[in-house]
Write a structure and sequence with these properties.
By secondary structure, this protein is an alpha/beta fold. It has one domain: Rossmann fold, CATH 3.40.50.300. The chain contains eleven helices and eight strands. The radius of gyration is 19 Å and the shape is globular. It binds adenosine-5'-triphosphate and magnesium ion.
Amino acid sequence: MGTTIVTAGKGGTGKTTIAALLINQLSEKGTVLAVDADPSTNLNLALGMPLEDTIGQVREEMAIAVKSGAYDDSVAKPDYIEMKIMESLVESEKIDLIAMGRPEGPGCYCAANSMLRTSIDRLGKNYDYVVIDCEAGMEHVSRQTTRDIDILLVVTDPTIRGVIAAGRMKPLMKEIRTHVSQIWLIVNRVVDELPAEIEASVKENDLDLLVSIPADPNLAAIEIKGEPSITLPSDSPLQVSIKDIINKLGLK
Ligand SMILES: Nc1ncnc2c1ncn2[C@@H]1O[C@H](COP(=O)(O)OP(=O)(O)OP(=O)(O)O)[C@@H](O)[C@H]1O
Ligand SMILES: [Mg+2]
């Protein structure tokens, strides 16, 4: 069974960029399932992978077919969902990508959602790593998976407010049913040294700092051209930090 890693945190802190670079570097070590759990669906762009269907579309199609009576009962619903998930999976040599798409509409999709989670969790068993990029906010983590999370990476900017928000993650994880083995804080876009005030706040909020990542001057040019984040040169500060993360977490 592979290692499940989740990136979470406030909006715009660098979750997707970090997830993409991590996925890319981990793919040199083993097979990776990349899960885009953000409804705005942009992990594929950061990875430079094409994307056609999302799981949201699969759920929607099934709900409509069941409601209108067009659903073919000769195929069991879990099997149908599994087939559709396989169809929407974007495959490459070492990385496969799946996008969750928009969350459910006003109707009740509980049964479909639970089938979806089960299928995705089963799919994840085929990989060495499953990396899930969450949407902004702390509360979405539990929705994405029924499996245990091995490593939760909470990304923040170097602000007191950001660190306080990240500090809410630990008690939140205790409240929900998802079991999380490790919770680490990443402070991203640090200019020069990590300010002493931020370091103190990290301790006050009972957080464990994994790394602080420098503001990377090479990223802006890539973003302007709309190129994938993973094209960052391997000696650029962000790539070096990701390598550091992999070493510190002991991922092999
Ligand atoms: N270390 C860094 N140095 C410079 N720019 C960075 C760094 N990390 C991320 N960025 C930039 O910050 C912006 C937001 O990054 P990203 O999209 O990864 O954040 P996010 O947390 O996934 O956002 P959202 O909450 O919208 O999903 C992007 O333009 C990205 O290029
Ligand atoms: Mg994002």
